[in-house]
Amino acid sequence: MTDSAVKQNGVNDTANKIQGNTFVRHLEFMWEIPFALVSFIAFKLYKAVVVWFYHFYMVNIKKESNQWTVLDGELIDKVLTVPALLANAPRWNTHVIAAKTGGFAVNQRLAIHYDAAQRSTKPWTAVIYKFPKTDTVGYVDALGADTKLNWTLENGWAEVQLPAGNYALGLRYYEVQQAPVLPEVRADGVTVIEEKSITPQNNDFFHRLIEKENLLYKLLHFYIYVILRYRRFLPEKFIYQEYLPVGNPDTHFIYGALLPGNRLRFTIAPEIFDYYNVYYDYYDYASFPVYWGRVNEPSFVLDTATAKGYYLVRVVPREKCPEPFQFSQVKVDVV
């Protein structure tokens, strides 16, 4: 057999494999959709149980509310942490140091040491929640505060008037500086949460997080992969509610499914980098992060996906932009 004939046979074999894989992929909906329905029901039941237990625990058992609790390697190794987060916050944000408080009473005024957060990181966001129901009340961040509440920023503190009740705080720190601290919090002029030092290496645990993956988590989150893969047949609002995290209202999200062999290609307007940070996460279909990073150049291609999963791109404001964000400025294509 001549060399040209050998080469032609190799081309034909490759073409046949591609056609075979494409044919199989076209038939995958026959099992993926029924299994996704099972996954969806299982996740809703699982989440209902976890949320009930969380509320019971926070109200009746946990008493240490007067401190910041940081998502770190020590916390992630506790038995209930991963099961709880995969019900309440399954889209891990690998780019932030995340912290929260327990509940505390406020009669009129809540104050956060704004300057301490500004010195520690940029961008950052502090979100106020009702406690223990976790309904969002408002937020303050590195660029100022939301307009729903009557915030004042003076003498290094961000203060807001609130109806009397119990509240909690959630905090996200991007791009931390050396010696970062979580800010002091005061209610009605009295310190309720002390300032807390953290390490810039806090998030190293993400590199071993996938070791905690199991068949239960694959069952619970498989439906997310399916609704993203077949999103053109579903209402976008439904996908948005099921997939996206409760983030800063100023954060913009781009997302979709990935198949083995897919790559993400970013095409970003250069001026975006003057005002925004662009982050990406690739999750397997159990919702565990496989790889992640920050995009720093206008043209960028991500590593090839090795398994079924999904991606989430966060466009996070770093400076106040004079023009509204346009999704056409950050294009993400699956190739």
Keywords:
335 residues, alpha+beta, Jelly Rolls, seven-stranded antiparallel beta sheet, 30% helix, globular
Structural description of this entry:
The chain has 335 residues and is an alpha+beta fold. It has two domains: 20-63 and 215-335, no CATH class; 64-202, Jelly Rolls (Sandwich). It has seven helices and 21 strands. It has helices at 3-27, 29-60, 73-76, 81-88, 114-120, 215-229, 236-243; strands at residues 68-70, 96-101, 104-106, 109-112, 124-130, 136-141, 144-145, 151-154, 157-161, 165-174, 181-182, 185-187, 190-193, 196-197, 252-258, 264-268, 276-284, 289-295, 299-301, 309-317, 330-334. The strands form five sheets. Strands 1, 2, 3, 5, 6, 7 and 10 form a seven-stranded antiparallel beta sheet that branches. Strand 12 (185-187) and strand 13 (190-193) form a beta hairpin. Helix 2 crosses helix 4. The radius of gyration is 23 Å and the shape is globular. It starts with a helix and ends with a strand. Residues 1-20 have low confidence and may be disordered.
Topology:
Elements: H1 3-27, H2 29-60, E1 68-70, H3 73-76, H4 81-88, E2 96-101, E3 104-106, E4 109-112, H5 114-120, E5 124-130, E6 136-141, E7 144-145, E8 151-154, E9 157-161, E10 165-174, E11 181-182, E12 185-187, E13 190-193, E14 196-197, H6 215-229, H7 236-243, E15 252-258, E16 264-268, E17 276-284, E18 289-295, E19 299-301, E20 309-317, E21 330-334
Antiparallel strand pairs: 1-2, 2-10, 3-10, 4-9, 4-12, 5-6, 5-10, 6-7, 8-9, 11-14, 12-13, 15-20, 16-19, 16-21, 17-18, 17-20
Helix pairs in contact: 2-4, 2-6
